[in-house]
Amino acid sequence: GGALEPFAASEWLFTEKPGAEIVILQEARAKRSYEGLRKDFERLSMAAVFNELMIKLAPKYEPCEELFRLHANALAALEELPGEGPDLMLLNGYLAKVLQWSGSQPQLQACLTCGKPFEAIPLDSALSCVVRDAGWVCDQCRVSQTRHLREREGGSFGHALLRVTPTAIQDFFMCLNTPIRQIPGRSKASKKEHHELFKFLEALFVFHVPGFDQRP
Q: CB–CB of 8/14 below 8 Å?
């Protein structure tokens, strides 16, 4: 029974018939149960978000070891987090890595309009992230003459501009280059800044990744 619990990592032995949607399960053995996730509602909720993403993204009937390792390590990081509940940074790190895996990683190294590198942007400024182009424009380029604002006049979701701070973008880069179990505790951005980053990452999934509804 424990091998079939939600979030359990298990080895299954099953029989599959060609063309059938249902398989015959013969044996199942739990490798890790992640019991700590079911003892806290907020951890359970975030783990459910991870699972929902996997249901939409994992290739059907194909092994995907890289995605499995990411998912297993994310559940472990969530279970091992100290304190009362999970931090939004862990979810943003998971989303960043899944975008990278899917080939939909945003290009955040430079301004989409003038090409100013991210390193030259003051940390006290705010960047305007463009959902359709999966990038950002700097404050100097965010004027009515830019193509981003002209094209935004139609009001489509893809042309929306979402404000994200450079500190949150720094955390995004850190998430891409850090094992997910090491991400908690390395954040430099505030909770509010991570909420703004989450809205941008969520919009990228909606607009660029197949399988997600194109609604905010």
A: no
pTM of this structure: 0.86
- Whether the CB-CB separation of 118 and 169 falls below 8 Å is answered with yes
Q: Which helix or strand (DSSP H or E) is residue 136 part of?
A: strand 135-137
Dihedrals φ, ψ of 59, to 5°? -65, 135
Percent of the chain with pLDDT strictly greater than 70: 89
Cα–Cα distance measured from residue 27 to residue 191, given in angstroms and rounded to the nearest whole number: 44
Query: How far is the C-alpha of 180 from the C-alpha of 167, rounded, in Å?
Result: 19
d(CA 160, CA 145): 16
CA 133 – CA 148 distance, rounded (Å) = 9
